[in-house]
């Protein structure tokens, strides 16, 4: 296992690899830190049957390709120009999920912040194309690193500050990973920019360390890292047993957006709709009567439904169902509760109603969603 265990991403992938080993007898795994090294020939001295690698260095990927030993790459940092099979996150879907999260909240101004790595480019593409498909625009913003007194490295992002000064907010900023999300949060804090009211931020990886060090908790796309590790071992095992190299990469879809303060908003300019949204969010998992919401908002049902759909693209009842489906997704992925219990806790009257509405909303039944997004055991 050529994996650096000092990073959150790779540690989590390694947990999935370890879980695979629990299902096999007489397997032995040696962990080697893949430091940036131009000479990897010494690896041939080991009696290896296969390699799982976090191939972020071209020299390592080139060596494995020439060596010919069964190898699987769990990194998408380099362009896929080699013949080594990959088991990686579906990074286009990562960007798409972040865009949908912002769009659902009614944002109309967007920016992307990241580096030039291949994985970041794919995430940017998924984000930008989803935003543009909604008839909106996404800009790319760039950092300006400044060393302050005492050797503090401060990250300025002038385009964000300028957009807020010009009134182009709330601005949804999608970041290539949680490290870049921390930069945005720090920049906003330094300039007294309010989050999420003026700038909403979403990162990638759901790293507790990065989020815990930021000035405010930020939202993040959670990847199925353990599943990447487990699946990589399944692919490697199949190659070792059959002698046939897999041809296509395995793309593991992202799990969800973990919503925290940095993007927990609904951006609408209609006060009646905003009021209705707050009421729905407070009570969506309980029996809810749209007529009661109409009464509290103080406009007719026909007018509220029209203004609500104009602002959000959904009816009030569709928003209730969306929130219930999101709760069901979380319970299905994170618990072993029975489907009937998931239905009750997510606001559905019974398991059959959950099955029908969940399948219609997600394209798959609850049991299939659980199988796809629950961590290996």
The number of E-state strands comes to 12
Helix and strand element order: HEHEEHEHEEEHEHEHEHEEHHHHHHH
Class from helix and strand fractions = alpha/beta
Distance between the termini: 20 Å
Q: What's the CATH class label of the largest domain?
A: Alpha Beta
Low-pLDDT segments: none
Q: Report the sheet-strand fraction.
A: 5-15%
Which of globular, elongated, flat, extended, rod-shaped describes the shape?
A: globular
Biggest beta-sheet profile: 6 strands, mixed
Report helical residue fraction: 40-55%
Mean pLDDT: 89
CATH fold label of the largest domain: Rossmann fold
Count of alpha and pi helical runs:
15
For the biggest β-sheet, the strand order reads 5-4-8-9-10-12
Compute the CA-based radius of gyration: 23 Å
Please give a quick description of this structure.
This protein is α/β, with parallel strands linked by helices and 377 residues long.
């Amino acid at each position: 296992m050529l994996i650096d265990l000092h990073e959150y991403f790779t540690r989590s992938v390694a947990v999935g690899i370890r879980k695979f080993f629990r299902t096999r007898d007489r397997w032995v795994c040696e962990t080697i830190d893949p430091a940036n090294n131009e000479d990897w020939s010494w690896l041939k001295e080991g009696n290896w049957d296969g390699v799982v690698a976090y191939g972020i260095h071209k020299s390592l990927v080139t060596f494995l390709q020439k060596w010919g030993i069964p190898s699987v790459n769990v990194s998408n940092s380099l362009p896929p120009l080699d013949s080594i099979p990959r088991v990686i996150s579906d990074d286009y879907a990562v960007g798409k999920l972040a865009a949908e999260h912002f769009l659902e909240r009614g944002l109309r101004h967007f920016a992307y912040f990241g580096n030039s790595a291949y994985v970041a480019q794919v995430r940017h593409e998924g984000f930008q194309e989803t935003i543009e498909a909604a008839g909106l625009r996404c800009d790319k913003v760039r950092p300006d690193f400044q060393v302050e007194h005492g050797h503090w490295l401060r990250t300025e992002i002038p385009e964000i500050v300028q957009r807020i000064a010009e009134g182009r907010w709330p601005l949804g900023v999608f970041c290539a990973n949680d490290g870049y999300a921390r930069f945005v949060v720090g920049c906003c804090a330094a300039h007294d920019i309010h989050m999420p009211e003026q700038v909403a931020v979403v990162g990638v990886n759901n790293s507790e360390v990065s989020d815990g060090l930021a000035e405010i908790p930020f939202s993040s796309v959670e990847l199925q890292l353990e599943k990447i590790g487990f699946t990589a071992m399944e692919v490697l095992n199949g190659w070792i047993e059959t002698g046939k190299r897999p041809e296509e990469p395995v793309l593991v879809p992202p799990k969800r957006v973990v919503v925290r303060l940095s993007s927990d908003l609904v951006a609408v300019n209609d006060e009646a709709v905003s009021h209705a949204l707050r009421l729905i969010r407070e009570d969506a998992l309980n029996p809810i009567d749209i007529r009661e919401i109409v009464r509290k908002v103080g406009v007719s049902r026909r007018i509220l439904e029209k203004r609500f759909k104009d602002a959000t693209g959904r009816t009030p009842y569709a928003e209730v169902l969306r929130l219930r489906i999101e709760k069901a997704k979380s319970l299905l992925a994170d618990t072993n509760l029975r489907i009937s219990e998931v239905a009750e806790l997510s606001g559905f009257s019974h398991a059959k109603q959950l099955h029908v509405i969940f399948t219609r909303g997600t394209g798959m039944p609850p049991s299939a969603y659980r199988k796809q997004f629950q961590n290996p055991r």
